[in-house]
Design goal:
The chain has a domain of 267 residues: TIM Barrel (Alpha-Beta Barrel), CATH 3.20.20.140. Strand 1 and strand 2 form a beta hairpin. It is α/β, with parallel strands linked by helices. It has ten helices and 16 strands. Strands 1, 2, 3, 4, 5, 14, 15 and 16 form an eight-stranded mixed beta sheet that branches. It has a seven-stranded parallel beta sheet with strand order 6-8-9-10-11-12-13.
């Protein structure tokens, strides 16, 4: 019996000791791996259109990248934990229409009408802005050096077919300087920053500016961004010239210089719906005059939904009916669009439209750009470009904005150390 017992003890040691050692090694390895988690957003409702996620999950961040998205990641495995229970955790928002080439000149190009991106983007959950052609092939290097390279917010841009960009004078209408090759060469040279070609204001009757902008976009295989301020071109002709993937902004505008998308009987015009079916994308482009409820509401009800929530953000529009991208998103929330559809249009849809599939999602390994949003309830009013109002009972607000793994906006101190206030 003693020999049998000794044999059993020997056998146990042969199998159990390595097993215990293996378990201890696994725990140690897990703890070591856990030290790589710099920030853990815990308990939020994750909405990520790319990955079909719409449920309560935790998001772990390491070295500026998404490390893990899963339920119940242990709090003890992260260097810093932020409780985001009851809040929406979404990919960082992408504002598809801004003017951020700010400077000391008058107007938009290197001017006082543009607004620096870090002044407005983080507080609205925006981690990427797209400048809407404020620069052209001649001025983009200056824009990059002054603004893009010095911003925490990621700045991408459409390049205007006009050499100098969006100016307030007739320079932007000089056809002689609308150079297809130089525009294409500039986009190829700065491929990390430039996402397409923009056609802006033109009061002439020739199609040359539009055609050159479209040709440049085709050369670089990027979308054409159509600003719509082309009074001599009919809306139908503009849409017919646009390819699948091209983008029309100010989609729900109601101004004298352009036909509206909704006719006098309140119906979306058939050629507009045909363009949508063909793949033309429609951006809000709210601005000071680009969004009207009498266009947006019937369009929404009839299936003409915006693909993205570009705000046409600049120094004056942010103090008018537009206010912020979250305010524009809140308008659609109160018009009846579901939250997952809204988040998709504010992130993944926008990313796809500018062929930046690396953005607008929370895939493991992607850059950790995140918007943590609350949906506040109460009595709210939402105003369009004509000073018309709809009432609503829900409104988005940015609680936390994370850019490349770093918290750059914290409205209520979710990530701050708690202290007892003196009374």
């Amino acid at each position: 019996m003693n020999k049998l017992s000794n044999f059993r003890r020997l056998l146990s040691s042969v199998f159990i000791v390595p097993l215990v050692i293996g378990l201890l090694f696994s725990v140690f390895a897990f703890q070591s791996k856990a030290q790589d988690i710099d920030l853990l957003l815990k308990g939020g409702h994750v909405i990520d259109a790319k990955n079909n996620i719409d449920r309560k999950m935790d998001v772990a961040i390491s070295a500026g990248k998404i490390f893990r998205v899963a339920a119940d990641i242990p709090a003890g495995t992260a260097k810093k934990v932020v409780d985001v229970s009851g809040l929406i955790v979404a990919p960082g928002l992408i504002n598809m229409h801004t003017h951020v080439y700010a400077g000391s000149n008058s107007g938009f190009t290197d001017g006082t009408s543009s607004q620096l991106p870090d002044a407005f983007a983080p507080r609205a959950g925006i981690t990427t802005v797209v400048d809407a052609g404020t620069s052209g092939w001649r001025t983009f290097p200056d824009f990059k050096a002054k603004v893009i390279d010095n911003s925490t917010t990621r700045v991408l841009a459409f390049l205007s077919i006009a050499a100098s960009g969006y100016s307030n004078d007739k320079a932007q209408e000089n056809i002689a300087e609308m150079d297809v090759q130089k525009t294409a060469e500039t986009i190829n040279k700065y491929a990390d920053n430039l996402v397409g070609v923009r056609i802006g204001r033109y009061d002439g009757t020739e199609w040359t500016p539009f055609d050159r902008a479209s040709e440049a976009a085709k050369l670089v295989n990027k979308p054409l961004f159509v600003e719509c301020h082309l009074p001599m071109y009919s809306l139908e002709d503009q849409l017919n010239k646009m390819r699948s993937g091209d983008i029309m902004t100010h989609a729900f505008e109601n101004v004298s210089e352009r036909m509206t998308v909704v006719d006098e009987q309140g119906k979306v015009r058939p050629f507009v719906l045909a363009a949508q079916k063909r793949g033309v994308l429609f951006d809000i482009g709210h601005g000071g005059g680009g969004f009207w409820f009498n266009q947006a509401v019937p369009s929404f009800k009839q299936g003409l939904w915006p693909n993205s929530f570009g705000t046409d953000e600049h120094r004056t529009s942010m103090n008018s009916g537009m206010k912020t991208m979250l305010n524009v998103m809140s308008k659609y929330l109160n018009m009846g669009m579901g939250i997952p559809d809204i988040i998709a249009r504010g992130s993944w849809n926008a990313a796809k439209s500018i062929k930046r599939d690396d953005l607008g999602n929370l895939s493991v390994g992607s850059v950790a750009d995140i918007a943590v949003l609350s949906v506040n309830t109460g009595k709210f009013g939402f105003v369009d470009s004509g000073n018309n109002k709809i009432n609503g009972d829900r409104k988005f607000e940015a609680e936390l904005t994370v850019r490349a793994g770093k918290i750059i906006w914290d409205l209520n101190g979710l990530s701050a150390k708690s202290m007892v206030a003196n009374k």
